[in-house]
TrEMBL record:
Key words, A-Z: ATP-binding, Kinase, Nucleotide-binding, Phosphoprotein, Transferase, Two-component regulatory system
Organism, as annotated: Sphingomonas parva
PANTHER family: PEROXIDE STRESS-ACTIVATED HISTIDINE KINASE MAK3 (PTHR43065:SF10), SENSOR HISTIDINE KINASE (PTHR43065)
Pfam families listed in its UniProt record: HATPase_c (PF02518)
Record protein name field: histidine kinase
Domain Histidine kinase: 1-173
Amino acid sequence: MLAHLRESVHRAATIVRRLREMTMRGEVKRDSVSLGDCVREATALALTGSTVTVSYDVPAKMVVLADRIQLQQVLVNLVRNAIEAIGDRSDGRIDIAAKEEKGVVRLRVHDNGPGIPADVLPTIFDSFVSTKAQGMGVGLAISRTIIESHGGELTARSSPGEGATFDIVLPTA
Ligand SMILES: Nc1ncnc2c1ncn2[C@@H]1O[C@H](COP(=O)(O)OP(=O)(O)OP(=O)(O)O)[C@@H](O)[C@H]1O
Ligand SMILES: [Mg+2]
């Protein structure tokens, strides 16, 4: 009983904290952030306890104007989702690549998991949409809010057998 109670309290606290994060519209503190460093730090955090292989193709001098903590939160969400999608298959891979295109930086996070079912894809950025038993379905909603508050865009695509691909577009610093 106590164990159940503790689990429920923890879950409720997490829901409240994440809802606050989602609705919080504080001042966005923007600094010149090294995208490569940000990606590596967030990935290291998200990968804890996972054996998935990650490849990076992010030019060392690429800089974006962003709130470093919020950008890391987005990356942690995307990488955690990829790890959760890959599950326990042993050849799991996540490829993270960035390139600069006229005035914007495009950061792509691709995984070789099962991909996103076509009937789920249109709603994954909505709050409380989840296909996971323990999922709250707020990770992507929060992530999109954060990227849009930076004047950017977060989109997803997936075709059968190709895994899932998330694209973050941000204005260059
Ligand atoms: N890389 C991915 N591969 C396949 N499906 C994905 C991927 N990322 C997200 N999804 C789908 O999108 C849904 C919503 O993701 P989101 O991160 O918002 O919520 P969640 O992971 O289910 O829960 P949480 O609130 O804990 O993040 C997931 O439940 C899953 O169905
Ligand atoms: Mg998630």
